[in-house]
Amino acid sequence: MSLDILDQFHDPGLCKSVLERLRATLDGHPLRFMEVCGTHTVAIFRSGLRSILPKEIVHLTGPGCPVCVTHESEVNAFLDLAENPKVILATFGDLMRVPGSKGRSLKIAQADGARVSVVYSPPDALKIAADNPDSMVVFLGVGFETTAPAVAATMHMAKAQGITNFRVLSFHKYVPPAVAALLADPETDIDGFILPGHASVITGVGPYLAAASSYGKSAAVAGFEPLDILQALLFLAERKRDGRPEVVNLYRRVVRDEGNAKARAMLEATFTTVDALWRGIGSIPGSGLEINDEFAAFDAKREFGITITECPPLPGCKCGDVLKGKLVPNMCPLFGKACTPAKPVGPCMVSTEGSCAAYFKYQVD
Amino acid sequence: MSEKVLLDYGSGGKASQRLIGELFLKNFDNPELRRMNDGAVLNVSGKIAVSTDTFTVDPIFFPGGDIGSLAVHGTVNDVAMMGAVPRYLTCGFLLEEGLPMDDLTRIVESMGAAARAAGVWIVTGDTKVVPKGAADKIFINTTGIGDVIVDPAPAGDRAAPGDAIIITGTLGDHGLAILSTRQGLAFETPVLSDCASLNHAIESLLRGLPDVHVLRDPTRGGLATTLNEIALASGVVCELVEDEIPVRPEVRGGCSLLGLDPLYLANEGKFLCILPEAQADAALKLLHANPLCTGAKRIGTVEAVDKPGAPGRVLLKTGLGGKRLLGMLEGEQLPRIC
Question: I need a labelling partner for B280 at 20 to 30 A (CA). Which of A46, A195, A285, B103 fits?
């Protein structure tokens, strides 16, 4: 896709006309919408869109930052693993500053001598394994269905190449069950959802159709440019006004309605779905991707006997309520005081795509 | 000399002498260095600016430069930003045993060429060799001094409401060149570091317009961090217009791929100039006459803080007409998951 075409998606004139149509659709009642994905969160703030949205639009940020929903027990598990002298932990950069229960992080562990390597793609970890035959290289599998196929493919590569010192610690999560949990939660008050543009490339819209058919809520798969987001908001507002809930794919230049069957086949060949713990939300049935028996040889959980159990949340941290759209980040008593990007209490303040970090970083007032 | 740097080269004995004579003196040659004293005796008068920096960049060779040229440009620029004409540099080398002599030679040649182009003398230096593993290939410290040519000199706490904010060219080139080389990423249009000595551009600017309030090169932390430092020190709001901030399309594309923001990436050949609004056009004219600053642009304005005593900050007017904070990063930018 050429840059010229993409330019149109942040054209101020086009955006303004959609914004006017959105304004005309609103009747003074609040429209509470949630974007599920952290990349949308950042896009809404970075583009300045948030500062020009009509007052009736209430913007909630959802559980779609993989770092944010990584459970405390999972964070503690990888921090413990980093201390194993035989292990080189390969990870995406986002996880370096995530605090565990004792205030430790991979950054601190690294300064204390733990071997942690920041990689840009999972196959980079295979190269580290080849270069360090006496060490066990563990790739930290944190991410959604967007990331998991590449990690699965890496395990297939490792198997084909006969690499024996490579493991994956899979904390991968699957987004549709989390959205289903939000829909089923009687305490949440959300009028419509902007569905994740990246994760939907894999799943398509199928897993989200129940939002309209069972819960009467509209949802739209959207891209990340301002015009994409405005069009999605306009769609949600019109559907709410007309009382005609619908789930649509508005990101057709990237997402196919049926998703990517090959990537899903790769996931099915490598992982099994299990219940998983999401930070602040708790256990969500069928939302975790565990390495299956065929790839057991690459499973760090089996290799190191790692089990994940529910543990009490960090004291005072309201990330759970933020992730469910019940609390706006700057209403948390810790926000900007005890919890800042310099000393994050909860994960929503750590990741660049975390909702609290986005508020802290971009919000003018 | 041997093919690799040996511990002997830092011993002070004959091996050290050979290294100094055959490599350093040959490439840095000037009358003061030639005297081969323990230090240098310099003629200076009036106010002197001094700055020091240590260069540890990895990779040591990158598109558009290397650790040697960077060690000269970086310190020359820091001295120049003080409103000074840089004149002399010192340099200290920390070498890891086993560094290929060819690499060291290339680096020293590049330093010599950079110093000549900037018109500064490297007048004294030091070389240490540490055992393999005790350092990573080569670290270089340079200290520079220069004559301050304006009074009051530009300073980070002098930005005043009503001032214009000018940047001399595209942002993020150096940072992305380094990161992409480190990650072995190749872009369709190669991204080159902008590393260059800016002292000539600054001298002509200051000789023409001595009332420049702030000069700063947005190196580590990029434009956003540097402007935040200035806004805090001056107690002002720096308001930028996003659409005016120059970023090469290939840098924008690479950043979007890697999840980085070009406004936080390092630059090594650009500077920020903050001066009274009435002089902005004259400043741009002077800057455009220098080949390193042909892309100079006005990108914003300095405003007063909302309430007296409120901390300074940086705001960005986005292309959509919205407004957001352009804050400081906690640490380095980290590649994101999805």
Answer: A46
Q: To the nearest whole angstrom, how far is the Cα of A141 from the nearest Cα of chain B?
A: 10
Q: How far apart are CA A352 and CA A241, in angstroms?
A: 34
Q: Which residue of A has its CA nearest to B179?
A: A120
Q: Is the pLDDT of residue A132 over 70?
A: yes
Strands B214-216 and B272-276: antiparallel
What CATH number does domain B7-148 carry, 3.30.1330.10, 3.90.1150.10, 1.10.760.10, 3.65.10.10? 3.30.1330.10
pLDDT band at A342 (very low <50, low <70, confident <90, very high): confident
Give CA–CA dist A184/A178, Å, rounded. Answer: 10
Nearest-Cα distance to chain B for A364, in Å, is 5
Task: Name the residue of chain A whose CA is nearest to B337's CA.
Answer: A92
Where are chain A's structural domains? 13-62+175-249, 72-174+260-304, 319-362
Tokens of A187: 């305490």
pTM of the model: 0.87
| ipTM score | 0.80
> Measured between alpha carbons, how far is A166 from A159 in angstroms, rounded to an integer?
10
The third-level CATH classification (topology) of the domain covering A72-174+260-304 is: Rossmann fold (3.40.50)
Across chain B, mean pLDDT equals 94
Least confident segment among A37-51, A251-265, B219-233 = A37-51
